[in-house]
Design a protein that fits this description.
The structure is a homodimer of 149-residue chains.
Chain A: H1 4-15, H2 22-42, H3 48-59, E1 63-64, H4 65-72, H5 76-88, E2 92-97, E3 100-108, H6 110-130, H7 134-146
Antiparallel strand pairs in A: 1-3, 2-3
Helix pairs in contact in A: 2-6, 3-6
The structure holds a DNA duplex (30 and 30 nucleotides).
Protein name (chains A, B): MarR family transcriptional regulator
Keywords (chains A, B): Cytoplasm, DNA-binding, Transcription, Transcription regulation
Subcellular location (chains A, B): Cytoplasm
Chain lengths: 149, 149
DNA sequence: AACGATTTAATCGCGTACGATATAACTTCA
DNA sequence: TGAAGTTATATCGTACGCGATTAAATCGTT
């Protein structure tokens, strides 16, 4: 016969199995994708989060730090150092908004704008590396967007 | 009329839109989930990656650093400092394998083992926070496992 | 036995993430 | 108008994540 304590332990063992955890599948997939991007982005001298920041700016520049934080769901404590590095790389310029000196405006430089074409190549190479049908990727993307919003 | 350069730009703008990027959906969802776990794990004094390491050990202890790295898909450069912190917290013990002095064996302490029950509560609270039907979560999990393996 | 190759962890440096806090600029409203 | 409240970034400390490198132990082959 099995005690209540044993049954509770069995339940814990089952529920907590790593392969049952959505959180781990997500964490692990995110790490894998970052690793997959790394060699592609090395050619541009960008890290993966820096690439995401550039995506935001290629969509629309200039943007304030706050707007970028909202788009990327990141705090200023993460963005500020990242943007300083992009500025150091000559891809963006940071300047105070004359209309509201609290705001910092991020603008693409010509070099930053020119990198867009190479980025297109990166996106295509990444798609090839994934080797997954596009509909499956689109479906996964939309499910992820809905998660924990 | 539209020039070839304009068409190429239009294509780049479309393809590179942030909301079209699986990579960003994944990155962002992973960050959100970590943030969602944080207040729950604060009660246990664990970070999110530390919680994942404990999940591995609750499944089966002792394990070598290498086995844990394989389970979690992490390098020793990530795991070693993390495990030292868990040891500092009294949840695990690190010891060299007498049969092969290269290996380091990670064992749960009684305190580490006892934390399993609280972890079960965390997993349940997280599920409530997500507020998503279980089948949807299972489906998402399996899709994530298949991605970029 | 012995020496080169391999395996296992650890160390180091860099770049995130983020909570807590600080600081400066704007807004409100008494 | 001026003090209190709010907002927009920046700074700091902690903890990852990983590539590159190192150090030690083991293995394979002769």
């Amino acid at each position: 016969m099995t005690s209540d304590a044993d049954k509770a332990l069995d339940k814990a063992v089952e529920v907590l199995r790593l392969d049952r955890q959505l959180c781990f599948a997500l964490y692990s997939a995110a790490n894998r994708v970052t690793r997959l991007y790394r060699p592609l982005l090395d050619a541009l001298g960008l890290t993966y989060p820096q690439y995401l920041a550039m995506l935001v700016l290629w969509e629309h520049s200039p943007r304030t730090v706050g707007e970028m934080g909202q788009a990327l769901d990141l705090e200023s404590s993460t963005l500020t150092p990242l943007l300083k590095r992009l500025e150091g790389a000559g891809l963006i310029v940071r300047s105070r908004d004359p209309d509201d000196e609290r705001r910092v405006i991020i603008s693409l430089t010509d070099a930053g704008d020119a990198m867009r074409d190479q980025a297109l190549g990166v996106a295509e190479q990444f798609f090839c590396k994934l080797d997954t049908p596009l509909p499956e990727l689109v479906d996964l993307r939309e499910r992820l967007k809905r998660l924990a919003v």
